[in-house]
Amino acid sequence: MSRLNPGYKFLTLLIASLVLSITYNIRLNIVVFIVSFAATACTRSVNKKKLLLRLLPFFLTAAGMFMSGFLFSSAGDVANAAAAGERAVYVTSWDSALKLSSRVLAFGGIGILFALTTNSMDFIMSLMQQFHLPPKFAYGLLAAYHFFPVVHSEYEIVRSALAVRGIKTGPLSKKRFFPMLVHAFERSESIAMAMESRGFDSDAGRGQAFPVPLGKIDFVFLFTVNAGVIAGIVWI
Question: Which has more confidence, 207 or 39?
Answer without folding.
Answer: 39
